[in-house]
Q: What sequence folds into this?
């Protein structure tokens, strides 16, 4: 029995234990919530350990996505094991224990099969990166990849620099006048209805293209620019964007520059603690135009802002719990239509529709907000969307989704010799990491508007076809 089969069976065993526990304890009690939280901790730990054994690295885009999925869709259950959920953020204050118990079970099963799909996609056991043996044609293709990425990077930066600067100024002014919450009160646009905003979104992908294609001084300059943008995002309260870009930079450095050692990981963990703690403070000052961050941080230091931030993020189990209450009692299963309508998001709205079909049928966070008559956007999650489409059978979709996503995300020794594939993996992580707490809509747009053009230009315009080094 090979290593992959062992970890697949182990993941299936844990899913089986979860199933049996729920079947033998059908009536929810507080202790049952904690037991499922313990199973979730075990399931996550085994998943990360298995990925490390199979691929040789645990700090890669796939594991970042998997970890984010657990934090957002199961985070409060993980904290509840230690009794560390922050009052005021606890889902038990708004949902029944039965609803949370059912949502826990579905989340664990769906994430288990998501990871099983990812394990099934692994084609080789990780091996250390060493000198790559290339033919003359492969060396030429490698050089073409570098030239292609530089050309695409400069093209994206040139087209988006002015719109990007305009957007940064706009966000700063909005936050100064309305507070952090002002950034989230506007209508979401799809297509060409907001050309400045659309063009501005090509700036960071352009810098990432240049980053992967650069060395030494150029690399340091681009990392510095991206780090400054992370600080800007945190300053204006765009927490998700800042965290995602920071994580992508760390993954890039770890996989492409110099792997972090244990001491460096410890320092990163310490820095991450204070970084996440800052997110909780930002959440409380979001609606205050004249809020002072340091004063707010000092005022709340006794409440452990780190645990509060994780408790808030873990509240993204709410959409699944409410969806399970509404579907199929008050609304029918979507049977995959939300994914199909998400495909139409690649067609810009040029006046054909008053509201784009992708937004009408694929914006599930908006649907939940209208159905529950909420005064805020509850977001959504990949688990909740799988459920609203296929019910308990959504684990089959999660298996397929995990297989495809892990194949796109995977960075191994061979891919490190292909800067194009490394860039696509990092860029995909940057573009869709936030979809763990949203609908499938952004994934389709990211693939079509960013990854596909880069791949086609580098491969077919510059001849940078991905290479497979000789053994």
A:
């Amino acid at each position: 029995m090979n290593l992959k089969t062992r970890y697949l069976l182990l993941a299936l065993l844990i899913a089986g234990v979860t199933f049996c526990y729920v079947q033998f304890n059908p009536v929810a009690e507080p202790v049952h919530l904690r037991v499922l939280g313990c199973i979730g901790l075990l399931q996550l730990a085994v998943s990360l350990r298995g990925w490390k054994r199979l691929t040789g690295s645990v700090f890669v885009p796939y594991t970042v996505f998997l970890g984010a999925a657990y934090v957002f869709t199961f985070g409060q259950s993980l904290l509840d094991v230690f009794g560390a959920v922050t009052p005021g953020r606890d889902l038990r204050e708004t949902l029944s224990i039965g609803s949370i118990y059912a949502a826990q079970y579905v989340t664990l099963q769906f994430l288990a099969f998501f990871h099983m799909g990812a394990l099934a996609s692994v084609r080789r056991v990780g091996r250390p990166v060493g000198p790559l043996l290339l033919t003359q044609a492969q060396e030429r293709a490698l050089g073409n990849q570098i030239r292609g990425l530089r050309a695409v990077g400069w093209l994206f930066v040139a087209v988006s620099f002015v719109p990007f600067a305009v957007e940064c100024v706009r966000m700063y002014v909005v936050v100064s006048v309305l507070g952090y919450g002002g950034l989230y009160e506007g209508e979401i646009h799809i297509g060409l209805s907001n050309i400045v905003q659309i063009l501005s979104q090509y700036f960071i992908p352009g810098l990432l293209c240049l980053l992967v294609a650069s060395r030494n001084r150029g690399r340091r300059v681009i990392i510095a620019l991206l780090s400054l943008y992370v600080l800007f995002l945190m300053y204006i309260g765009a927490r998700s964007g800042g965290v995602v870009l920071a994580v992508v930079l760390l993954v890039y450095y770890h996989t492409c520059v110099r792997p972090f050692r244990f001491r460096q990981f410890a320092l990163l963990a310490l820095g991450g603690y204070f970084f996440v703690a800052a997110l909780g403070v930002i959440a409380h000052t979001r609606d205050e135009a004249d809020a002072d961050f340091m004063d707010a941080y000092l005022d709340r230091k006794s409440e452990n802002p780190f645990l509060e931030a994780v408790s808030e993020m873990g509240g993204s189990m709410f959409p699944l719990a409410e969806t399970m209450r509404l579907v199929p009692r008050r609304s029918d299963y979507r049977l995959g239509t939300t994914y199909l309508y998400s495909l139409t998001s690649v067609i810009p709205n040029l006046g054909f529709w008053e509201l784009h079909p992708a937004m009408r049928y694929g914006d599930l966070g908006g649907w939940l907000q209208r159905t529950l008559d909420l005064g805020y956007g509850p977001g959504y999650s990949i688990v909740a969307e799988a459920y609203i489409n296929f019910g308990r059978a959504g684990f089959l979709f999660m298996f397929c989704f995990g297989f495809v996503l892990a194949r796109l995300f995977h960075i191994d020794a061979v891919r490190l010799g292909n800067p194009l594939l490394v860039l696509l993996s990092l860029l995909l992580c940057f573009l869709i990491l936030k979809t763990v707490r949203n609908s499938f809509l952004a994934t389709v747009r990211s693939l079509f508007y960013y990854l596909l053009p880069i791949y086609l230009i580098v491969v077919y315009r510059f001849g940078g076809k991905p290479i497979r080094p000789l053994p």
Remarks:
- The first helix runs from residue 3 to 24.
- Confidence is low (pLDDT under 50) at residues 126-131, 187-193.
- The chain is about 70% helix and 0% strand.
